[in-house]
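Team,

Forwarding the record for the chain on the shared tracking sheet. I've put the sequence and predicted structure together so nobody has to dig through attachments.
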Amino acid sequence: MLKGRESLIRLVGRRRRFLRRRHSLLTSSAPQHQIGCKECKDEVSTGNGNVDEEEWVDCPVCGKKIRGEDRVVNSHLDKCLTRGSKRKLSQCTLFQLNFCTRPRVTVSSIESDVTRIDVGPSTDDDGPENDIQDESKSSVCNRVNRMENLDGLLKLDDERKLLSDAKTMQIFGLEGSPQHQITDDRIDNIADSPLSLSEKRMPKCVEPSEDDDNSEILLDTFVVGRRFGNDGELTVGAMIMLSRDPENVKDQNAIKVLTKDTDHNKELGYIPRELAQYLSPLIDKFHLRFEGHITSIPQHPHAVVPIQIYSSGIVSFGEKDSSSLQVFNSLRRNALSAAEFSQTHSPIPAKYQHNLLLLLKEVLNINGHLFTEGEKTLLEAFLSLSDDSQRLFARLYARKGPWFRMASISYAEICDYEEAVKGLSEAECVTLFESMDKLQNNDLKEVLNVLNVGELRDLISSLNKTHKKIAQNSDRGTRKQDYIARVLAAYQGGLCPNLTSMILGKTGRCIRISASAESVFWRAERLFFLNGEQDLSEFLLVDLGIVKYPAYNCIFTDQIFPDRSDLLSYEEAIEVAQIMDESLDENNNELVSRCVEISASNVSSFVEEDRSSHSGSMAAFLSCFSASWVYSKVILLGVSFLEHEQRFKEAINLLKLLLDKFKCDRRRGYWNLRLSVDLEHVGCLDESLEVAEKGLLDPWVRAGSRVALQRRVLRLGKPPRRWKTPSFSSSVKRKIVEVHVQGRPLNCKTGVKNVFYGEDGDRCGVEELALQYYAGEGGSWQGVHTESGIWLTIFGLLMWDVVFADVPNVFRTKFQTAPLDLETDSFYEVRRDLIEALLDKIEHGMAEELLIMSWESHVGTACRGVNWDKHSLSELRAAVTCIGGPCLASICRNLAQDYRSWSSGMPDLLLWRFRDDYRGEAKLVEVKGPRDRLSEQQRAWLLFLMDCGFSVEVCKVSHAPI
């Protein structure tokens, strides 16, 4: 894989179905330096179907095109003026801006710089109402009468696992944070939604009255969670019984529903959680037994099953036991209330819907100023849709698609598909195949993909009966894509005018997410997670208990995207990155070169002080959310592509561009190294040496890249080029102890992983063979093959409280496993006092105690670098004890100061052995096979560890003589 490809794939994440700017990006003849500054006019359609066009004006300072909105113009002018104007700014030039007349987004006043606010709905009633300027406003408002309050959305029972695994995070507000124009009651009110925590959603606890008694309890309720029960046929009237499940990891009040059978009790599912919280103490404390029967059978196999249950026996209370009677009556009445509530609000599974609404709520509360009126209108229309429409959209959005057969869509939580589709279509959230008179070629290809090979073959046969030329002129391949190509050829050639109707006859009605909705919801999802690797499935992983995120506070003092123009430039850069990734998959070298040209042109116009509004420590880790940073990754991948094509001169120009434009970047070490290597490839040895020498003076060149440049200087800087020996010569040339081990090889092929026969006769790799050697004649060492894994795990556990300390702006979402600045210099700078105090404890022998406390407090919680499954606590304790405090503190300090540069390349084996006084010693070993050699990063680690006082070796495994 090309260098930088994997990183680009992670950046892009899930590929977007529709790239609105693809055509303009790749065909525009305008100067490319304007690409990152111009906003595409093909924005989200408003309710009346018109395109929401923006007015563009020329900046009187720099001359660039900017959106003609007051706030955007003012922000842009501030940036230009702080960098120094190119021409005198006069009153005349200000009037020439031709500001647009759209209503300005208001900014709510906040009393203090950092104010604690709730994640829930805003209570500020002074904000402007959202102005819906299209004819569909009345139809939208007609659907709003089905709303109920979503106040306290984060405490929803269906999402309780999310906040039980991590304490409720306190969100701190931004001073002057723009208030979005979608009113808060619009966001917080969802029609008859089972997601609400209002009084309608959750019955209040009923206080006991004097009329209560301890008579039989009769309840009508449901069986939920059937997918986790045993499969089997149900019959109306079948007897059931309830059984407590206190070991349930998701709910300690869980109550199972079992069939009442003398031979075998089958598990059907559970009763609703709202009811179980009252019945469980009646079973546990008052020893009531509940039985009942099934009242009806649902059609869907996983739908809820209506049941009726009753208690058997009467609980007796003495005269002196009035408190127990009150508790019993309170539980009884609350159980009756919960059961009555469940009859009118059946527990329909709606996690997808709830998660999507939660995402939209938080994004609009924090980043509402980044959405246009058209986008807010679309979101408002979606929020006012019925539950069925919202749930169908949430399901389709999470699937790959883009087209889906209506006949194959089946979800238990959706009652009326026709009304759901109708609502989504009116809100312009979906596109239907039946309503499209003319399809684009790509659209038709995607629709044909929903057909299987047999259906495509039948379609070809039908075409051949009426149009013989299709069989004569088309490729006769038998793969699915071959059949699709033949149908497309017939469509493009106009050989069959009614082809679209024939395809519709095969596919039936098809549906897909519309381009406008996909764009808006992708933007919301990106703003929520701030990366391309996470999506709505993260909620589900938490619900199922698969992932447990750590507890931390989100403190906001600044916006990641100050205005919409920054966000659009960033999104445009991601589109270029996606096109680059797709082009590499398709081996389209011309398009790859075009993407590199676009990126280079944008970086050429980049000014590093663009983020001057941020503090220095913030700019380092927030820079990855800028367009220039994304373009730099595309360029770096382009460098690797050009080097692979042996186009070294073009690669050299790109590397010089990166080094010239990004003065403070941790990637400068690699850029300098590649520039020096490529210059040597083209025969410029003097310049190659000069680049290596200048690179060593760069404070951003570190770890393996620094060692590599030092070795290049020593190799290239021999007389007559250089007569003086560099001061680092003796340090780099230090000898590392080598141990040679022989083994019987299973294979000797070049390019294939070495496999040997171990001492026990089983097959093993070189690392396992080395472990066997050190466990025996090598010195009775214990150890693990871990590389960087065990070190990052130890670092994460020891530094847990430091990593998740309250630092502004480093935690922006609830789904982070590390602060945003972990891989930057600001991590150590901002937390210097905390880190040094902890390192002092480690150095003085408290590492094992800290490790045990951290493990017991956080076991199973996701944290960057920590692997709970690979290493046991006993292994970690042994390693920490034998390494010793001073050496361990040195490694932790190194990782804290530069996690990015030092989190890889550590030695393969960590070995330890104890002495009689519970003290021990450790050894670090890098294992190399017959044809392997040390990388520069591995050499840098070994030299660093030697400086720290570690015992370090290189174990070279060779073939035993036959």
